[in-house]
Amino acid sequence: MQRLSANLSERRRVSCTGCWERLVPRAATSLAAVALMAGIAGCSGAPPLKQVLLAPPQASQVARQGANWQVARVKVPDYLDSYHIRYRASDFVIDELADAKWAQRLPAGVTALLQSTIDSSLKQNRHKPYTVHVDISTFAPQPSGKVVLSAHWRVTNRQSHETVAQNAAVINKPLAVKKRSPEAIGRTMSQAVRTLAQRIVSAAG
Q1: Phi, psi of 192 (to 5 degrees)
Q2: What DSSP string describes 123-174?
Q3: Which is it for strands 93-102 and 84-90: parallel, antiparallel or unpaired?
Q4: Cβ(159)–Cβ(105) under 8 Å?
Q5: What is the distance between the alpha carbons of residues 199 and 205, in angstroms, rounded to a whole number?
Q6: Per the CB 3.0–4.6 Å rule, which of 25, 76, 120, 179 could disulfide with 62?
Q7: Cβ neighbours around 20 below 10 Å, total
Q8: Per residue in 48-62, pLDDT tens?
């Protein structure tokens, strides 16, 4: 009798264990499905990220044949080599916009805008085999409400390898509005890059 009772208890234990093992994966699957649906619902409610360009519309640029000047890929600090639109929130804190990104990585956008602005600004020495090197140390909106572009630039002759001109530049441009909107940041940073290009042309062109 005792053996029979023990056997029945063992069978019940095994049966319950099997039920539990079947229930656990089902419960985990259900929880995962709920989490996935919640994530999809959250994503579907968020507006798409704005894509910001540094270059102004083509209609506002002077159409001129490209010069023989070449702009090497601009160097920036690692934290700026990104699609994120970053700004200095305080002396020691860098933050980024949550609702927008650059349409292309910042160094690529700066390089392209420098090239197009130099091409459209040059009046003399357009045929010179010059290469423009730009090393940016700071380029971001500041807590003061200004965009600061700090860079060292150098123009070299590709044939003679001589330095034609070089200098450091610190360019300050106030944001059109105090609010850090994607439009205001893109427009103001674009103005800063074009100002740098014009200074390079004035010195070496």
Answers
A1: -65, -45
A2: -S-TTS-EEEEEEEEEEEE-TTSEEEEEEEEEEEETTT--EEEEEEEEEEEE
A3: antiparallel
A4: no
A5: 10
A6: 120
A7: 9
A8: 899 999 998 864 555
